[in-house]
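Chain A, query sequence.
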Amino acid sequence: MKTVASLILCIVFAAFGSHALAKTRDIPVSAKAITVSPYTSRSLVVDGKEVFLTAGARIYSAQNRTIVPSRVPAKAKARAVFERDGKMSEVWLLTPDEIAASKN
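Chain A, predicted structure.
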């Protein structure tokens, strides 16, 4: 019986892909809205100025995968958490739906 249940679960997951398990991203309310572009392996251009990343900083793509700074698209809309020293510790590249929602 467990085999049948597992098979059904596999078929459902295959039919709907990861969207069946998708959830909204938990971007902190304190994250600042920015426009970001790649610059170096340790920094990004934020609203026209170079801003460094903290050690261990995470950049999330619109698909919610972690990416390296060189994979950030030019002039991407994003939200970021800044530390006291001005460095970024987390960056979320926004989806079109998140951009539209932030305008409201």
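The two ends are 49 Å apart (CA to CA). The CA atoms of residues 53 and 97 lie 26 Å apart.
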